[in-house]
Specification:
The chain is built from eleven helices and three strands, in the order αβααββαααααααα. A three-stranded antiparallel sheet has the order 1-3-2. Helix 1 crosses helix 3 and helix 4 packs antiparallel against helix 10. The two termini are 26 Å apart.
């Protein structure tokens, strides 16, 4: 596991949730692994209560399954759960882009532009690039004041994010950045149709990667 320091004002439950979530997405904790509350609590120097609460939260999205007396089983990569997560993102983020076309301020536009410049700089660093990709989309939620939706979507998107992580390790090109630039341009021009169309194309790029990922990482995929 990769354990980073606790953030300022981060409660113990939030800390445990973030660390376990990041390690599952990064596949430091492999699909099919068993993890225990006491094991994680000891690694993070926490009591079992916040870890237990974090596990309960993660189990709601089926990224882990709590097995009485045995621990928690990290779910295998399941195409049905991935598609459900993508459906949720497609519905919510298409609506966000439409709303951002109406309300994004010059400061919001500048924030998105700076994010894209950093994406270009870190394109060869898969971990940093994925963080910036996530932050680009998070900014859309922030612009529209929909951060509770963001929390819900990110929890469910863990199923999709594991495959995104594997895809970025396999192949990094500028298609994602070009999509982000086109989405930003649509927001700047208040062109809702172009923004949504680009976003749908953006999220559907997964279709091109799944067969390769499922074949290469067969041991991680639900049968």
């Amino acid at each position: 596991m990769i354990i980073t320091p606790k953030l300022d004002h981060e409660h113990n439950r939030e800390y445990a949730l973030r660390i376990v979530k990041e390690n599952i997405i990064n596949l430091e904790i492999k699909p099919g692994s068993l993890i225990g509350e006491q094991e994680i609590a000891s690694l993070l120097n926490l009591s079992r209560t916040p870890v237990h609460e974090a596990f309960l939260e993660l189990s709601k999205s089926k990224i882990i399954n709590i097995l009485p007396q045995k621990g928690c089983l990290v779910s295998y990569i399941d195409l049905e759960l991935i598609n459900e997560a993508r459906f949720l993102r497609r519905c919510i983020e298409a609506a966000l882009i439409e709303e951002a076309c109406d309300i994004a301020t010059p400061e919001d536009i500048l924030e998105l532009e700076e994010n894209i410049k950093l994406q270009e700089f870190y394109m060869d660093n898969s971990k940093k690039f994925m963080e910036l990709d996530n932050n680009f989309h998070k900014t859309l939620y922030r612009i529209c004041n929909k951060m509770q939706c963001h929390y819900m979507v990110t929890l469910m998107s863990m199923h999709f994010d594991r495959v995104r992580n594997l895809t970025l390790q396999e192949n990094r090109d500028d298609k994602i950045i070009k999509d982000h630039k086109a989405i930003l341009e649509a927001i700047k021009n208040k062109d809702k149709v172009a923004g949504v169309e680009t976003f749908i194309k953006h999220i559907n790029r997964f279709n091109l990667d799944w067969e390769h990922i499922a074949s290469k990482y067969d041991e991680y995929v639900a049968k």
